[in-house]
Write a structure and sequence with these properties.
7-stranded mixed β-sheet, 6-stranded antiparallel β-sheet, 52% helix
Length: 709
């Protein structure tokens, strides 16, 4: 039993060694034709996916590592290399004895971050490095291709290893050929790329010249699109790395994707301007603006390395399809210049789809599918230039047609104008005769009006003179400043009639050691209100001086009865009357009594401001002769200011929004100035009123009486 087990184990180990030997020996690529170019030979290779990216050449060539190698079955390394992992590839290449020594392994892939090439020699491994993580100077051959030398002079059998690494999906299509074939291919490629860049440069300069000549911003957007496109293709082909930033490999890692985002932005910008999408396709215009915003957002993600996935290719494909759809919409809406635009982007889309399908292994990844995008871009550039030329031609034709139409309309207008001028001339002659007759009649009428105007002027002067005389009478009746000075050390009177005479009046008498002061606001303005003020003044004189009443509430009751009696308001719709505030001041006892008919007073002490409200009853008008008024009694044991006023100040319209001054604002103003002397208070109130009123008309008589107790 033990012998059988040992034999079985030896047999299994022998089979393993045979399989490993066969696996390794089955990888040789045999070169027997010195003029051939060998491709699709990677089925002869072994590969290993290093997910740690930490293995070295010493690790992968160790005998115990042989079991990890796997045969590569996809034909060529044109499948995308998984990002962030390292790929190891082992190739054994044999050359016939008559084969020359100058052979190269090369690839036109420009997106790999790292390509490390190891060639086994009797003395060890010779290393060559290339890729976007190294400066261009580190490459063995200064070309956009990745090329690595073989040396069959040392051995007719060459064992080579490749280690590749990339942050993004990339490819490594390999070719095995002689150096002369390689340089011939590079020369042809550079020649074709020179034509490609030359077309872009010529079209850019030509359209830039047209922009400076025509000043059409579409040509500027086109030049910007061409410039960014050249940078995109230059970065994708490796020419930008080789010529523009060879010593800055970090730029090469991000520049292609950043430039592709800019290309998408510039394409959408040119599209919405050239097609006038805002006019012909509003919804499409919104979609283009949205895509432009996404392009800028993706640019930030790629520039900051926050995202490096394949979403950009999907976004550009969607954007091209959107631009074509917007082009069709604008064409159907009447923009005939859109047809060349649509054709240009369809050609580019077909080339891009071919490249995308090659990336996805639907189409073979070869020189045609890899560089077909440049052919499509060249056709796109030419077709877009034709689109611009067609647009300019159509604009010029439309402008010429518009000018012809304008000339035709002008000619017809001139002819119509001549006939109308003749017709109007005849009508004007007739109208002139009628006007002469009317002028004579108007002259007579003007003479009559002038006479009437003179009469009215004389009457107005007479009336004004009468009112001016009434003003002198009214001012004579009002208490003088000297009267107030007999009883008060500090007081002011702000008296601003709206018209010549006023309906507001103030009144002061001394009766039995009691000072009775009143401020009244009569109904209306001007002469009627002044007459009512005369009535109020006479009633106060009669009630206080003749009848001896000194109590404010009783004075108001008698005045109410008096107004009803004088104006005969019993049973009649006569609403004339007045609002009035009356204070009786007992100076020796330092107290006062107040009663008000719709007219409150304000008492300002050291740090206290009191509003004493009036009864909601007017004197006369809608009141009843039997109405009673409330008496308010208070003391002023500290220096205080008392304010009696009409409603003209707070009701005045003005300010920035033509609104009323309002009672609240007036109360705040009085509180703030209460400690100033009477002259300053008067000036502050007058300035505030004039500033608030501004250019607006004064709407009511203004009266404020301030007395320091």
């Amino acid at each position: 039993m033990l012998k059988s087990s040992i034999l079985s184990l030896l047999f299994t180990f022998t089979l393993y060694l045979m399989q490993a030997h066969v696996c390794l020996r089955a990888q040789a690529v045999y070169i027997n034709d010195s003029s051939a170019v060998y491709e699709q030979f990677c089925t002869n290779a072994l590969f290993y996916l290093d997910k740690t990216s930490g293995l070295s050449i010493k690790d992968v060539t160790a005998p115990e590592f042989a079991k990890n190698w796997q045969p590569y079955t996809k034909g060529d390394l044109s499948e995308p290399i998984t990002p962030h992992y390292s790929y190891w590839l082992r190739l054994e290449i044999k050359a016939a004895n008559d084969i020359p020594n100058d052979w190269l392994l090369d690839s036109y892939s420009t997106f790999l971050d790292t390509i490390e090439f190891y060639r086994e020699t009797p003395s060890g491994f010779i290393q060559q490095r290339s890729g976007n993580d190294f400066t261009h100077e580190a490459r063995m051959l200064k070309s956009t291709y990745q090329a690595f030398k073989l040396n069959f002079a040392e051995s007719r059998t060459q064992i080579v290893y490749f280690r590749t690494h990339s942050r993004y999906p990339a490819w490594l299509p390999l070719k095995l050929r002689r150096s002369a074939d390689f340089y011939e291919s590079v020369l042809l490629s550079e020649f074709l790329y020179g034509i490609f860049y030359g077309i872009f440069l010529i079209m850019s300069l030509y359209n830039l010249f047209l922009y400076y000549s025509i000043r059409d911003k579409n040509y500027l957007y086109y030049v910007l699109l061409m410039f960014v496109s050249m940078l995109v293709y230059g970065s994708g082909s490796g020419h930008a790395f080789m010529l523009l930033w060879p010593d800055y490999p970090f730029l090469n890692r991000y520049m292609v994707r950043i430039l592709m985002c800019l290309l998408g932005f510039c394409s959408a910008l040119f599209t919405q301007s050239f097609l006038q999408s805002k006019k012909y396709a509003p919804k499409g215009h919104f979609c283009l603006l949205t895509l432009m915003g996404i392009d800028l957002f993706m640019l930030v993600l790629f520039a900051t390395d926050l995202y490096n996935g394949p979403l950009l290719n999907v976004l550009l494909s969607v954007q091209i399809c959107t631009m074509i759809a917007v082009g069709f919409t604008c064409w159907q809406s009447g923009n005939q210049s859109a047809r060349f635009f649509i054709l240009a982007w369809i050609v580019y889309l077909v080339a891009g789809l071919a490249r995308a399908m090659a990336n996805m292994s639907v189409l073979p990844f070869n020189f045609v599918t890899y560089h077909g995008i440049e052919v499509g871009a060249t056709l796109e550039v030419l077709l877009l230039s034709l689109a611009l030329a067609d647009r300019y031609k159509r604009m010029r034709v439309e402008r010429e047609n518009a000018q012809k139409e304008a000339l035709r309309i002008q000619k017809e207008a001139n002819e119509n104008l001549e006939s109308k001028v003749l017709e109007r001339t005849h009508e004007l002659r007739n109208a002139n005769e009628e006007l002469n007759q009317i002028n004579e009649e108007l002259s007579q009428t003007m003479d009559m009006l002038e006479a009437k105007t003179n009469q009215l002027h004389q009457r107005n002067e007479a009336i004004t003179a009468s009112i001016q005389y009434a003003k002198r009478i009214q001012q004579a009746i009002l208490p003088s400043d000297s009267t107030f000075k007999q009883y008060f050390d500090d007081f002011f009177i702000l008296y601003l009639p709206r018209d010549i005479v006023s309906g507001d009046f103030y009144w002061l008498v001394r009766k039995d050691k009691v000072l009775v002061v009143a401020v009244a606001d009569c109904t209306g303005h001007g002469v009627p209100a002044a007459l009512m003020a005369m009535i109020g003044n006479n009633l106060l004189n009669n009630i206080v001086l003749e009848n001896g009443l000194i109590y404010p509430n009783l004075i108001l009751q008698q005045m109410n009865k008096g107004v009803h009696r004088v104006l005969k308001q019993e049973g009649k719709a006569v609403n004339d009357g007045m609002d009035i505030a009356i204070c009786s001041i007992y100076q020796e006892e330092m107290r006062l009594e107040y009663a008000g008919a719709m007219s409150p007073i304000f008492l300002a002490k050291e740090e206290e401001f009191i509003e004493i409200k009036a009864d909601k009853i007017s004197i006369g008008g809608h009141s009843k002769p039997t109405d009673y008024f409330t008496a308010h009694k208070m003391r002023y044991d500290t220096p205080s200011m008392i304010y009696l006023l009409s409603d003209g100040f707070q009701d005045q319209f003005g300010g920035a929004h033509n609104k009323k001054f309002m009672v609240k604002k007036l109360k705040n103003l009085l509180y703030n100035i209460r400690k100033e002397n009477s002259i300053q208070q008067h000036d502050i109130l007058l300035s505030a009123f004039e500033s608030w009123k501004g250019e607006y008309k004064q709407i009511d008589d203004v009266l404020i009486l301030g007395i320091r107790l």
